[in-house]
Amino acid sequence: MTLYQPFLEYAIDELNRSLDLGPYPIPAGFEHKSAMTGSAKKAQEVVTTSYAYRAPKLRQIRAAHVRGGKQLQVLNFVIFPELHYDLPFFGADLVTLPGGHLIALDMQPLFRDDPAYKERYTSPIWELFQKHQVNLPWGGDFPEEAQPFFSDAFLWTRPKEDDVVKTHVFAAFKDYLQAYLKFVKAAKPVLEDCLSEVREAQLRYLRYRAAKDPARGMFQRFYGPEWTEEYIHGFLFDLERKLAVQTP
């Protein structure tokens, strides 16, 4: 079992238990992709598997799981709410590279600097953040341009040991997901005059993530630029495409 398989299985089990989960369409060619990398003597298969669901209040729940041996493992797991809810995004980027682990876990806000929004979605998880930060200290420099898309309860850490990922990171992942599901259960549709703000906030986030996706270089090396760009814009961050199809 790979390092992040238990995270993925836990998330899917919890979502099935807590929500009326249904399938979300994955475009052809993205469900499963593999390539060989490395020299002939040290060849390694890299496999990317995609998962996608939807549920009431949640437009898309999706995961990309990359397995390329012990030193290349990635789980990108994101939940996108429907456009008539002001819920934050649930975002987990769990990355293992030869130099160690890069862990980013957050409920990414639509309106980071709005005090009422912070009170609704960041304050309730502040104690969770403080609890887990004891074992998962701040990981250091983070791009300034990315900061508006993360909350004050953003867990960003760089553990060296697998055991830290298996225990402390997994515990934080579980707690954040459970807290997010509580937010979903309590969420009410926004007022009509707020719909455009919510939509634009979601689009800002998705455009930024699609433009700056840190996995772009990795995917291009393994699967080529054409597949990579279509995967990013047609599946991972597909809202703009979906809205364009809906527009008469």
From TrEMBL:
<dbReference type="InterPro" id="IPR022827">
    <property type="entry name" value="Phycoerythrobilin_Fdx_Rdtase"/>
</dbReference>
<dbReference type="GO" id="GO:0050897">
    <property type="term" value="F:cobalt ion binding"/>
</dbReference>
<comment type="similarity">
    <text>Belongs to the HY2 family.</text>
</comment>
<comment type="function">
    <text>Catalyzes the two-electron reduction of the C2 and C3(1) diene system of 15,16-dihydrobiliverdin.</text>
</comment>
<dbReference type="Pfam" id="PF05996">
    <property type="entry name" value="Fe_bilin_red"/>
</dbReference>
<dbReference type="GO" id="GO:0010024">
    <property type="term" value="P:phytochromobilin biosynthetic process"/>
</dbReference>
<keyword id="KW-0560">Oxidoreductase</keyword>
<protein>
    <recommendedName>
        <fullName>Phycoerythrobilin:ferredoxin oxidoreductase</fullName>
        <ecNumber>1.3.7.3</ecNumber>
    </recommendedName>
</protein>
<dbReference type="GO" id="GO:0050618">
    <property type="term" value="F:phycoerythrobilin:ferredoxin oxidoreductase activity"/>
</dbReference>
<dbReference type="InterPro" id="IPR009249">
    <property type="entry name" value="Ferredoxin-dep_bilin_Rdtase"/>
</dbReference>
